[in-house]
Amino acid sequence: MKPREKNPPVDDAELLERSIADVASAIADPSRVSMLCALMDGRAWTATELSAVANIAPSTASAHLSKLLHGKLISCLSQGRHRYYRLAGSDIAKLLETLMGVSMKLRTSHKCMTPIHLRKARTCYDHLAGEVAVNLYDFMQQEHWFTDDGVGLSALGQLKFQQMGVVVLTHSKRKAVCECLDWSERRSHLGGSSGAALLSAFEQNGWLTRIQGYREVNFTDEGKRALHRFFKLKL
After folding, report:
1. What are the HTH arsR-type domain coordinates in residue numbering (predicted)?
2. What distance in Å separates the CA atoms of residue 94 and residue 81, rounded to the nearest whole number?
3. Where do the H-state alpha helices sit in 71-220?
4. Phi, then psi, of 176 in degrees rounded to 5
5. pLDDT recorded at residue 114
């Protein structure tokens, strides 16, 4: 009689199903969702800060963070006695943004309760999101700032980015241009390494300001003038 295998092989389809179930399980808790949404600002947070956001005890937060770490949705960085948590990458941020869009779509019968400042302009991990970002993406498409396949900057796009002082990482594993579905606008904004570089330049140029611990951004007077000059957008 052939001995029974202790760990029978798992085919690719079953492995994929288990992996999807593990990710869904890691997200499926209101407290963990609150933590993930907070981390969508692209910055690193302490466990204490995340416990305050989720309105739970620090000990409970630690258990939730362990679950998110195990699911590889977040990463942890230790500096001295402190530990900081952040999203595991832009792909996780894109997944969360997509889930937000699907969730809002399923609640179309309810009045949108999203604060106006969040709908106007906010961060989506390392790039800009919201109404302003969607309008910028539409303008760049219409003015042919992207290549025909939509995954890179055209010669004109590269020139315009240079004029704004935007430096795009050329050796990044990410796509230079990647459309990201905006959950509040239900349209696309700019992601990828170009989207990250654009937000970074906006901040370095003093065109927008960010508040620690919040996703919304505010455009300065100089930033508003720059939006009109480069994108024909009036705020």
Report:
1. 12-107
2. 31
3. 90-106, 116-120, 131-142, 155-163, 192-204
4. -65, -40
5. 56
Residue 154 in contact with residue 142, Cβ under 8 Å?
no
Cβ-proximal residues to 202 (8 Å cutoff; 6+ apart), any chain: 128, 208, 223
The β-bridge partners of 12 are none
Contact yes or no for 153/141 (Cβ under 8 A): no
Q: What are 83's two structure tokens?
A: 């530990």
- The pTM assigned to this predicted structure is 0.70
Contact 119, 130 (CB under 8 A): yes
Is residue 109 within a helix (H) or strand (E), and if so which, with residue range? none
- Predicted confidence (pLDDT) per residue in 74-128, tens digit: 999 988 888 999 999 888 988 888 887 777 666 654 455 556 667 899 988 889 9
Would you state the pLDDT for residue 107? 61
Phi, psi dihedral angles at 104 (to 5 degrees): -65, -35
Tokens for 223? 């930033």
Terminal Cα distance for the chain, rounded: 77
Say what the pLDDT of residue 44 is. Answer: 87
The identity of residue 159, as a single letter, is L
CB distance 223 to 199 below 8 Å? no
Chain-centre distance for alpha carbon 36: 10
Residue 152, both tokens: 């890179």
**Count of beta carbons in the 10 Å neighbourhood of residue 223:** 21
User: Do the Cβ atoms of 201 and 164 come closer than 8 Å?
Assistant: yes
